[in-house]
Amino acid sequence: MQKCFAAGVSMTALRAAVPLLMFMWAGCGETYRPVATPIAPNPPNPNFSHVALVLTGNGSSHPGASTTIDVSGDTAVSRSTVGLLPVHAALVQNGSRVYVADSGDDTLAEFSPTSAAPVTTITLPAGSTPSFVATAESATVYVANTGNNTVSAVSIVSNVVEPPLSGIPVGVHPVSLAETPNQQTLYSANQGSGGTGGSVTSINAVDRSINPPIANATWISPVSVAARSDSNRVYVLDQGTGMVSAINAFTDTVVANASVGVGANFMFYDTTRNRLYVANPANNTVTYLDASSDALSAVVIHVANPIAVASLPDGSRAYVSTAAVNRGNVTSGVTVINATDGSIRSTIPITTVAKVCASNPFELAIAAAADSSRVYVGNCDAGNVAIIQTLNDTLLLQMPAPLSASFSTTGNPLPQNPVFVVAGP
């Protein structure tokens, strides 16, 4: 045991040291308690809930893939094998599950987008050729089947096709679906064949019966449909007439039309600003329509070779993927639009490569991350995904797609072709 003072000390020195000795005595016999400084582990990424999903095709004989990108980390965090020729996907149940339309083998692939969990394959009727997936529900997802002119309802709970098992009959060549947020009505845009014979089908989402034909409607080749966030209006883009039509969702009557030019083939609904963006590569324009009233007032922006549009959830900007073809090569890029006034903010070059994805309807699919920090462009021809940082609108990186079953002339495996991009909530 430690001594608090030693013997043989003079009285004078002792008296002088009394205050110090009393202080030391107070500490005699105390137990030493070591102080530990905790080392905090690396915290989990707080933004990992924000993801982007990229579908890639691997030819007509090999399964495609779905790659999930962590928005904050700019890394691929999981990859799932899907069916043949995947073309479209929808995230459901607040982004916790994804359904992929595999047009090459008449199936849907269902899985978690954030883990390498097993993929559930849902078989659709033979000849369905599914092309589009959509829902506003948590219990049912709907699939447009271009091959047999039907819409299938699939239970999210059991992953089985619900009655009618043969599908809900719609018009010729359904290519786009939209369900009103109140889950009352599902609309199918049916493109028709050969640039004519198109239609729009209104379906009662409660019992899946077909509603009476939409009044005051003249369709040639509808290619896109979108529901307004208040469920009062549904909008249809008709490529053949060059019109966007507003449908009263309670009466199924066309109540307004706005011209966006013949050949317009892409429409995106911006929920933040309550507007519709329409891309028209035939006349090199992007038009946005004010959807807050049936006046559908328009702002026309001249953009060369627009393909698709995405807007940031913060409402500040819209991004337009573009593609110019010259002698078999496609030069892709992104045009950035100020959402406040429609002015062009900047252009972002991506790449120039040989064109290989002429038949892909989503050749340069584009999506904005939920936190508005990134924009993703699926560059089908280049075999990669361009990631744009919105802080300074620069190309951050080009993420290669998974390797395919095809090989180059030098014997190296080629990348798969990105065919669709969707961002999670």
Which structural traits does this protein have?
single chain; 425 residues; mainly beta; Methylamine Dehydrogenase, Chain H; 4-stranded antiparallel β-sheet; 1 helix; disordered N terminus
Description:
The structure is a single chain. The chain is mostly beta strands and 425 residues long. The longest helix is centred in the first third of the chain and has 17 residues. It has a domain of 121 residues: Methylamine Dehydrogenase, Chain H (7 Propeller). Strand 8 and strand 9 form a beta hairpin. The strands form nine sheets. Strands 3-2-1-33 form a four-stranded antiparallel beta sheet, with no helix packed on it. A four-stranded antiparallel beta sheet has the order 4-5-6-7, with no helix packed on it. The N terminus is likely disordered. Helix content is 4%, strand content 49%.
Relative helix content? under 10%
N→C terminal distance: 66 Å
Shape, per Cα inertia axes: globular
Distinct helical segment count: 1
| Strands side by side in the biggest sheet | 3-2-1-33
The major sheet is characterized as:
4 strands, antiparallel
Give the total of beta strands. Answer: 33
Share in β-strands: over 45%
Coarse structural class: mainly beta
The stretches of 5 or more residues where confidence is low (pLDDT under 50) are 1-47
How confident overall, as mean pLDDT? 90
